[in-house]
Amino acid sequence: MTALREHAEAVRLVDHHVHGCWLAPGDRARFENALNEANTEPVADFDSSFDTQLGFAVRAHCSDILGLDRHSDADSYWAARRAVPEDVLAQVFLRAAGVSDWLVDTGLSPGVAGLGELATLGAGRVHEVVRLESVAEEAASAPGDYAAAFDALLWQQTRAAVATKSILAYRGGFTGDLSDPSPAEVADAAARWRDAGATRLTDRVLLRFGLHRALRVGKPMQFHVGFGDRDCDLHAANPLHLLDFLRVSGDTPVILLHCYPYEREAGYLAQAFNNVYLDGGLSINHLGGRSAAFIGRLLELAPFRKILYSSDGFGPAELHYLGARLWRNGIAATLQRFVDADEWGETDAVRVLDLIAHHNARRVYSLD
Asked: What pLDDT digit, counting tens, does each position of 163-219 carry?
């Protein structure tokens, strides 16, 4: 094992975008559905999520933790997994990830561990990321002026949080007007939304309002970008459509999450704007054996002080661990190729690895 690979194995990570994991048991269908990001329906009867890059990666990299041989078949993996209590699996896999800090999006919480429960697993410190659309839906149910309610809730919820996040990509995408709406526009839109039942927020005016209010808070703002489930129109989740918004975003850090298949566009934006950053979370897990090539593309154009690590794990604790495992493998293999070709020195490779593993996130999110 090279010195670079040894360092990649030992370095502690900051997982700057993640969700809760399961603590209660479930059946195999729940598990396989959780290995498919894009399909909003149950996996088809003829299909299996084990027969995907992610499914193969789970069996390749998680089997030994369950006492199985590498590449054990899907039935053996499921049988071994089912024999261990879900909360024990969560503790084992999250601790094995080697993460010092988990930055948790609390806007997607049904059936998974909350902040307090994650903290009790002893796998690292836990910090909150506030989802703007969740704040909006809470403000809509409050009495009185919507804008005032949103502001009060946002300031209250972000006092102890490290960042905000928007899922605008799922609520109409980035195409179209993203300017700050007038108070009259906000009041009219809020009245229409409340009259309609104020459920899932898709009103463009109120989505824009939330983004610009979050800029005033000044804490880092995360955007889901690119790959996601089919509720997200992929063509409208290209981050280049955010150009007008980024031009007025000031100094507030804007972090582009996931990015596939727009990692090169995201890299350009990270070079073009001092306040734009990116990661490859979620995508690395789903690309499995091809994730090293994706990590290489993230390193093509984006400045190295603009790239962060995340797993975007949600549900099975394997995903929280696997993101780290695949990232360690992929970054070491990619950087070692640079060193072996005499394009990089090993000292620089170790330094860049540390930047992405934890230094950049600690700076961006002001983690002590």
From this structure: 999 999 999 999 999 999 999 999 999 999 999 998 899 999 999 999 999 999 999
Question: Would you state the structure tokens that stand for residue 361, as one six-digit string?
Answer: 């996130």
CA gap 358, 7 in Å, rounded: 13
Q: What is the pLDDT of residue 14?
A: 98
* pTM for the model: 0.97
Write a three-state SS string for 248-302.
Answer: CCCCCCEEEEECCCCHHHHHHHHHHCCCEEEECCCHHHHHHHHHHHHHHHHHHHC
What's the pLDDT tens digit per position in 73-113?
Answer: 999 999 999 999 999 999 999 999 999 999 999 997 788 99
3 state DSSP class of 178:
coil
| CA 365 – CA 250 distance, rounded (Å) | 16
Token pair in block for residue 246: 């980024």
Q: What are phi and psi of 231, to 5 degrees?
A: -70, -15
Tens-place pLDDT, residues 288-302: 999 999 999 999 999
Is 178 in contact with 245 (CB distance < 8 Å)?
Answer: yes
CA-CA-CA-CA torsion for 204, 104, 320, 267, nearest 10 degrees? 50
Are the CB atoms for 138 and 181 separated by under 8 Å? Answer: no
Its CATH class, for the domain covering 3-22+85-364, is alpha beta
Q: Is the predicted pLDDT of residue 40 greater than 90, yes or no?
A: no
Residue range(s) in the chain whose domain bears CATH number 3.20.20.140: 3-22+85-364
Do 228 and 38 meet the contact criterion of CB atoms below 8 Å apart? yes
Alpha helices, DSSP H only, in the chain?
3-10, 28-34, 53-62, 74-82, 86-96, 115-119, 132-140, 146-158, 183-195, 204-217, 243-247, 263-272, 283-287, 291-301, 317-340, 346-354, 360-364
The alpha carbon torsion through 205, 211, 216, 219 (nearest 10 deg) reads 170
Question: Taking all residues of the chain, what is their mean pLDDT, rounded to a whole number?
Answer: 97
pLDDT reported for residue 368:
84
d(CA 177, CA 187): 18
